[in-house]
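User: Run a structure prediction on this.
Assistant: Running it now.
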Amino acid sequence: MALKPNSTDTRTRSTIQIFIVVGLCCFFYILGAWQRSGFGKGDSIALEMTKHSADCSIVPTLNFETHHAGEVGNVDESEKPKSFEPCHPRYVDYTPCQDQSRAMTFPRDNMIYRERHCPREEEKLHCLVPAPNGYVTPFPWPKSRDYVPYANAPYKALTIEKAIQNWIQYEGNVFRFPGGGTQFPQGADKYIDQLAKVIPITNGMIRTALDTGCGVASWGAYLWSRNVIAMSFAPRDSHEAQVQFALERGVPAVIGVLGTIKMPYPSRAFDMAHCSRCLIPWGANDGMYMKEVDRVLRPGGYWVLSGPPINWRNNYRAWQRPKKELEEEQKKIEEVAKLLCWEKKHEKGEIAIWQKRVNDEACRSRQHNSQANFCKAEEANDVWYKKMDACLTPYPDVSNPEEVAGGKLKPFPERLYAVPPRVASGSVPGVSVETYQGDNEKWKKHVGAYKKINRLIDSGRYRNILDMNAVLGGFAAALDSPKLWVMNVMPTIAEKDTLGVIFERGLIGIYHDWCEAFSTYPRTYDLIHAHGLFSLYKDKCNLEDILLEMDRILRPEGAVIFRDEVDVLIKVKKITAGMRWDTKMVDHEDGPLVPEKILVAVKRYWVVGANSTSVQ
């Protein structure tokens, strides 16, 4: 069955155009009427509404003309902005730090070649990555969970390779995702129902999940309706575009692999971790990968392993693997789980579930085990390009056997605004309970202003949102909605490491250095937020490179909200003038005398070969 545009799609598109025009108070007058993505174009309704768009009273508290002296004093209006050309069409799905040709020059041992290998300075592209011909705005959630426009990721290999496993089907102008997987061909919902008989998925205590080797992320997609948000990752490998499909579906995902480098997440981050036939050698290297999962798994959290070697006695023939090999593999997994002091809660069919103890009180015997090599506690969150070690991450201290190490969390959604244990305990220097609560109020105010500027924020138009400098997660918390999710990024050069706090709120995030490319495909985010980012990276790396990376990962007609000092934003605005973005400077919601300003941008719609030459 091929899905086609209908009148509802067109009317929705018209409404989107109207909101942009009115919400940005005439700035998007032309843009709103003539946007070309999605499943309709600007029609007579939109054109009629733009005639009346001069009425800007909808945002009376915002002054769109900035009055800070810095704007006049720092801009040379006579200097023409640098114009960035489109990259060659072969770069349409370019992932700079996971480039296939570069990857093949690295060793294959322990998946080193699938790890991040970023281009040297002289290898960087200084052009705009184009969208493929026929690119359209993805379907709104939840329709996007099940359908992806073929033109956005035109790769059919998985429809053949995974045909009997119900991963993905090609139907005319769309891909359909029935919700199946290698271990759950009958669908992710039924599979999650099985897990829920052991794991308390429905009571709010399981909120953050990690899916290792996620495929097209159907497990994460179907957890969403149960108010669980999964961070899914898989390498860019022979299963072409699996993470790209996940993001086109509106499911949180990054390109990643368990290799030799620690995962880019803090300790005690996830309530549940999952591997469904993910092909990770869990027992190898002294159980190093299980120990890394243990590092990021919250005390009391669950680890799910389905597929080989579980139930090897009945499946070794189907898996075409020797019994002895599978038996030894499961034996190693059981030994490492025992060393980690995980309690096995369930094994039935091909599913096994372990639970991490809430503290170290039941595991004191490990102290005398010669195999129990403990990591340094202070290095638990030091992960960026740091080698993974086959050591055990120690639990935080507790005062009694019933206490949850690191602090007990509230169920979600109460967890979102409850004081996180890391804040309550004073574990983050400079962040008190009062600081945290004040930050929440500030971001409620900021997001309220954003929604007046851009009425699309609450409309469902923006599903995948990126916060490039998340701090305490206040932006994501204020936006919380079943219509969207936010990837909270903790810059590795930030003064305070607060990513653990973000996870304790029931949000997800990742460590990253914005001097390098992000671990995602082009065109994967609908809205990007950058608060204080360019002040943070001033003199650290080229701001032009950061902006070109933002352009790479932003969808055509996606939006960006910058919040920074006016002098910084003027420099940003000048660079974006050559990037096919439309921008407008807006005063701080407290008035024109506040030096912090807001710069709003929209990326224009254009595709391969659109009226320009390309950079080879």
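Residues 4-75 have pLDDT under 50 and may be disordered.
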